[in-house]
């Protein structure tokens, strides 16, 4: 009986994690970890889930939904909230494997999967929204290829975007919110729509909106390439090695990587490299020269110029927080 009860607890928690709990809080049972999943069914076409937990074992999460759910899109904001105390005690740099920096995936249900690692704090917000609801919000115009494709419900897609400070602020407000009881659903509905707005405002800034058909194997491969690119921030990626690893042609790898992540492989690497530099300088209190050398720069003038181009201020000024 005890084993049966444990299995039911685990099944209930996994069901909640997959993105379809009802209203209320599901506490992760001690059998699989600690923490909670808080769900809000804001309308028949809009749901919001807040996930704050740590698992004892790895769990491969597949948010593929039933056939009747096929017209829903999943928007998953990962690593959206971290307290200053947690940042101080973070054991390794954020970009060490590309998974710890805040990011958001927007995908059709068939492409939305995630490895939930053991012994690591998971904090994310997941929004599931029907294409009809999204179409009403976005009002896609003729010629807006990206918006039309996303709201059509006829083509599988996956995009990932690095989370902006604005998105982080809204996400942190959701995680820490204590809204008036009678207005709880109203509050979370407004915040969910605000996150959707900020995400699509970022996606529409992408220069190249040429869209190619994707399949699950291509998505899996491009994420393996992403992890390889971000595995060592001090060593720039070597395209020939990545092409060999992917099993794709060079042109196909470049095209799919840019479609999913919105940047070329090298530019994507540089973005994360500079975010890592910012972390080392501001949080780890390394000097500008120490951060530059750790990230593979031999020319500190070049490092300073690149840092300012990406972060907006020179590294010495960034270090003071002024």
UniProtKB/TrEMBL annotation:
PROSITE patterns: HTH_ARAC_FAMILY_1, HTH_ARAC_FAMILY_2. GO terms for molecular function: DNA-binding transcription factor activity; sequence-specific DNA binding. Residues 223-321 form the HTH araC/xylS-type domain. The keyword Transcription applies. Signal peptide: none annotated. Transmembrane segments: none annotated. Keywords: DNA-binding, Transcription, Transcription regulation. It holds the Pfam family HTH_18. The keyword Acyltransferase does not apply. This is AraC-type DNA-binding protein.
